[in-house]
Here is the input.
Amino acid sequence: MKRHKRIIDTVLTACLVIVAATGILLHLKKHGIVIEPRAVLKAIHYYTGYFFTLCALLHVQMCLPMLQKMKAKPWFRRFTWALLGFGTAVLLTGTVKLLSPVRIPHIGLWHFWFGLFMIATAARHLWTALPWLSAKWRKP
Here is the structure.
């Protein structure tokens, strides 16, 4: 179980970096900078985003009981719950943007801003969790 958690946490971190980077590159179009091949960037962003969501669900399933018992670090719990909220908002706006048959005004901008807030809260979450994860990789 611990080995699976370590792998899922590592993949989750890598997916966050890939999704954030491709999302920012895709957003640059709004500022007149088009990076090609755009279709490939979009595909990487979508597939990695949904894989990130799958890994996040597994991560939450494994860590939620532990999070609920953490009384000593309320700030960590607050950032974690904010991360869950922003992650859900990013998933919903991204899915609506992807599947909507018509263009919905400003949904992409909402998706972008929710993504930035998710990245910020994930960075704070990782500030605490990354030393633990790297220590787990050093142990056999």
DSSP finds four helices and no strands in the chain.
